[in-house]
Write a structure and sequence with these properties.
Structural class: alpha+beta
Mean pLDDT: 79
Oligomer: single chain
Radius of gyration: 36 Å
Number of domains: 2
Distance between the termini: 116 Å
Strand order of the largest sheet: 1-5-2-4-3-6
Largest sheet: 6 strands, mixed, barrel
CATH architecture of the largest domain: Beta Barrel
Strand content: 25-35%
Low-confidence stretches: 1-59
Order of helices and strands: HHEEEEEHEEHEEHE
Number of strands: 10
CATH topology of the largest domain: Barwin-like endoglucanases
Shape: globular
CATH superfamily of the largest domain: RlpA-like domain
CATH class of the largest domain: Mainly Beta
C-alpha cells in the first residue's frame, strides 16, 4: 500500500512545484507613471483653453456700463445682402454676429436683448438700416437666431451701446435717405424736386438691392438740418430716414 502511494505523492509534489514555478515566471505589469498634480494657480500669461478664464473678454464686455440705450423693433436681413459690401466697407456675412443701425457710429459694439424671451447677444454695427417703418435694428441671421428674432421675423428688443469708436453725441456725417422707389422714373422725379427745394444740398440717386434710393447729404454735416429736412419730406413710396454715414 505504501509503495503504491509513493508514486502518487511524487506526482502531486511535482505538479505543485510546476504551478508555483509558473506563477513566479509571470512578470508583474509595469506601473503607470503618474503625472504630478498641479495645485498652484496658473501663470496669468499661461494659455488655458476651455476654461471660464478663456471667455473673460466676452464676460467683461457684457458687464460694461452702456453708453446709450433704446427700445424698439428689431428685424433681420440675409439675402440679397449676403456677400455684398456693407456700409463700413466689409463684405456682409449673415453668419457673423453683426447688425445694421441707421445712426450709431459704424463698428460700435452693442448688446441686444429680446424683451419677451430675455435672450441676449453682443453684435457689431457694420451696416445701415433698417429702412422699413419704425424698426431700429436689422440683425444678421446669426444674431437673429441668438436673440430669438429669426423665427418670429421681428421682436421688441433693448439695444445698449457698449463701445463706440467716436462720440455718440457730436460729429458725424449726416444725410437723409428716401426710398425705396419701385421705378427709376419715380426716383428721378423726386430727386429733381429735392434739388430744387434743398439747394445747395447734394442729392444722389442710386440703385439698391430693394429698389431705387435717394440720399440728401446736408451742408456741413449739420445733424440738426438733416433732422429738419427729414421731417419736412413726404413720399408716396418707401420712407424718409435720418442716416449717419460714418
Amino acid at each position: 500500500m505504501k509503495l503504491f502511494c509513493l508514486p502518487i505523492l511524487l506526482v502531486l509534489l511535482l505538479a505543485g512545484c510546476a504551478r508555483k514555478q509558473s506563477v513566479i515566471d509571470v512578470p508583474s505589469p509595469p506601473e503607470i507613471a503618474q503625472e504630478p498634480l498641479h495645485t498652484a494657480n496658473p501663470s496669468p500669461t499661461q494659455e488655458m483653453p476651455n476654461t471660464p478664464a478663456a471667455q473673460a473678454p466676452v464676460a467683461a464686455i457684457r458687464n460694461v456700463k452702456p453708453l446709450y440705450a433704446e427700445l424698439g423693433l428689431a428685424s433681420w436681413y440675409g439675402a440679397p445682402y449676403h456677400n455684398r459690401r456693407g456700409s463700413n466697407g466689409e463684405i456682409y456675412d449673415m453668419n457673423q454676429m453683426t447688425a445694421a443701425h441707421r445712426t450709431l457710429p459704424l463698428n460700435s459694439i452693442a448688446r441686444v436683448t429680446n424683451i419677451k424671451t430675455g435672450s441676449s447677444a453682443v453684435v457689431r454695427i457694420t451696416d445701415r438700416g433698417p429702412f422699413i417703418g419704425e424698426r431700429i435694428l436689422d440683425l444678421s441671421v446669426a444674431a437673429a437666431k441668438a436673440v430669438d428674432v429669426w423665427n418670429a421675423g421681428t421682436a421688441w428688443v433693448k439695444l445698449e451701446v457698449l463701445e463706440a469708436p467716436v462720440p455718440l453725441d457730436t460729429g458725424g456725417k449726416w444725410a437723409v435717405q428716401i426710398g425705396a422707389f419701385e421705378t427709376l422714373e419715380a426716383a428721378v422725379q423726386m430727386k429733381q424736386n429735392l434739388i430744387d427745394g434743398y439747394h445747395p444740398a447734394r442729392v444722389l440717386e442710386f440703385a439698391g438691392p430693394t429698389g431705387q434710393w435717394i440720399r440728401i447729404r446736408v451742408q456741413d454735416d449739420d445733424r440738426g438740418l438733416a433732422e429738419r429736412i427729414s421731417r419736412s419730406i413726404t413720399t408716396p413710396e418707401g420712407g424718409v430716414f435720418l442716416v449717419r454715414l460714418d
